[in-house]
Amino acid sequence: MPDSSFDRKLENLLEYSESPQPETFTMDVMRRVQRERRTRKLILWAFGLVGALFGLAGAIMLSGSITRLFAFTVTMPVTETMQVVLFIVAAAAFYTWFMNDDLPLDS
Known about the structure:
Layout lengths: L4 H10 L9 H40 L2 H5 L7 H22 L8
Helix pairs in contact: 2-4
């Protein structure tokens, strides 16, 4: 079967004649992704600290005196009950944050 000039022209058109460029685009994208991750972590840390400060301020305003939080009587008034619940929720939130437990999203 003779090789036609049309086939050679088609091969010349389809061949990749340029040498591949360095992977600057890929490296640029990866650098941007890393920068965005650092920015995201910084934002999460900042808002986490602000939230922790507001939580601490709220706990201080609710508790009145820290000794009253641990000096329980047999019948606990509403304020002490709220303080205990606040302390337990704060401890659970701190544990979840500190241990970096991510809740699974897949079902």
